[in-house]
Design a protein that fits this description.
The protein is built from 15 helices and 6 strands. Helices cover 54% and strands 9% of the residues. The radius of gyration is 20 Å and the shape is globular.
Length: 336
């Protein structure tokens, strides 16, 4: 079995921030990449909780991750620090990961929302500095501050990466994480999008486990989902957005490799029938969820044909059939 990267401790549910800040630290650096009043307020509240017990706390807020990284490195080089605490986006968590790798200081993750985003810094490859946080804090109160658009794209992208882990044929441990998280995301994404607190709470946990499954899948960097989403990046579209748009077509393309148990866990399996029929209904359910989240079904709604043609010419190694599925036949004329 391959090595699995897991945090030492996870804090769930309400008041998880207060529980987390009771840890014995002497000096804490808190970083956040959200400078709008509503979201930065939570980072300030984390600092206030640490101030009650920790002698030295410093809060750095900077929406530019490159600048935030430089300011944090400077602070760490001038001050002894016990822990780096990242309060913000998935990109920020990866910034804290790199800081931890460079400084040797453990870090804690307090994500606004678990996401499949990966931030590759030019200085080193992600797989080189990938490490697990010492603590993860999943506080639904923090997630309630996220706009519905972020909930929609991040949840469905995490679902896509969980399904991709299943398609890759991951081991039993990771497969269980991927299977349960995919089912929970599909069952709760629409409720969370509409602001239901219980759905947000369940979705937050499920998305975190989907990220764990994806990052611990052996073929994650060479999967079809990774290839297709990389195609989008040349059009200026993020991998999360790409995954959220493409997942129904990818699920349909690989439906024979998706376990029917996922359909069973989402209430779509009928006793005595062939598993593929249940998976077909699962694909249709994904499309309905995608529509309910107001996510476009085609890349053509956000990119011009000229942009797609240019990107296609640079990625002819991709499976033509999968491209046709993902882009609704936009590239069929290019076969000639």
């Amino acid at each position: 079995m391959p090595e699995i990267f897991l945090p030492q401790k996870i804090y769930f549910g309400e008041n998880s921030i207060k529980k987390f800040t009771r840890n014995d630290f002497e000096s804490v650096l808190i970083i956040s990449d959200k400078d709008d009043a509503k979201k930065s307020e939570f980072a300030k509240r984390v600092k206030e909780n640490f101030d009650k017990k920790v002698p030295v706390t410093e809060l750095i807020i900077d929406p530019n991750l490159g600048s935030l990284h430089e300011r944090s490195i400077k602070y760490i080089s001038e001050n002894e620090t016990d822990r780096i605490v990242a309060v913000g986006s998935a990109g920020l968590i990866d910034t804290a990961m790199l800081l931890s790798y460079q400084s040797g200081i453990g870090f804690s993750a307090v994500p606004f929302f678990s996401s499949s985003a990966l931030t590759d810094f030019e200085e080193t490859k992600y797989k080189t500095y990938r490490t697990s946080p010492k603590e993860v804090v999943l506080d639904p109160e923090l997630t309630m501050q996220i706009d519905s658009g972020t909930v929609a794209y991040d949840s469905l992208s995490c679902f896509a990466y969980a399904v991709d882990s299943l398609i890759c044929g991951c081991n039993a441990v990771i497969g269980s994480l991927a299977l349960s998280s995919a089912a929970e995301i599909l069952n709760n994404a629409v409720g969370a999008y509409r602001g239901n607190f219980k759905s947000i709470q369940k979705l937050q946990y499920a998305m975190y486990y989907a990220v764990l499954a994806s990052r611990n899948t052996d073929c994650a960097e060479s999967s079809s989902l990774e290839e297709v989403t990389s195609f989008f990046t040349q059009l200026g579209v993020s991998k999360q957005t790409a995954a959220a748009i493409c997942i129904p077509e990818i699920a349909e393309y690989y439906r024979s490799e998706i376990p029917s148990e996922l359909a069973r866990m989402t209430g779509l399996f009928r006793s005595g029938e062939d598993g593929l029929y249940a998976v077909d209904r699962l694909v249709e359910r994904i499309r309905r969820v995608q529509a309910a989240l107001n996510i476009p079904r085609s890349i053509s709604s956000i990119c011009s044909e000229n942009e797609m043609y240019r990107a296609f010419c640079e990625n002819t190694h991709l499976p033509t059939e999968l491209l046709d599925l993902c882009y609704y036949g936009s590239f069929k004329f290019m076969k000639l």
